Amino acid sequence: MLDSSNQKYPPLPLIQTWIWMMTQSGTPEIQEKGQSNLIASFGSLAKANEYLMEQNQK
User: Fold this and answer.
1) Which of 1, 7, 19, 39 has minimal CB crowding within 10 Å?
2) What pTM was estimated for this model as a whole?
3) Which residues neighbour 49 within 8 Å (Cβ) at sequence distance 6 or greater?
4) Which secondary structure element, helix H or strand E, spans residue 57, and what is its range?
5) At what angle are helices 45-57 and 28-42 packed, to 10 degrees?
6) DSSP assignment, residue 4?
7) Which pairs from 2-11 meet CB under 8 Å and 24+ separation?
8) pLDDT given at position 8
9) How far, CA to CA in Å, does 57 sit from each of 22, 34, 38, 51?
């Protein structure tokens, strides 16, 4: 489980934008940029997903 209290993550709307870019933009360059932003912020897509799951439980 991520300890989000000790780490600074981007605002949730920005994360959601990156996810949209990655999954629904339909443009390979935009998809790559969304994915690379998530990985740069969280270290992996799995950790980004875990963070989002925690946010949805709040």
Assistant:
1) 1
2) 0.83
3) none
4) helix 45-57
5) 70
6) T
7) 2/47, 2/50, 2/51, 2/54, 4/51, 4/54, 9/41, 9/42, 9/51, 10/41
8) 87
9) 23, 24, 20, 10
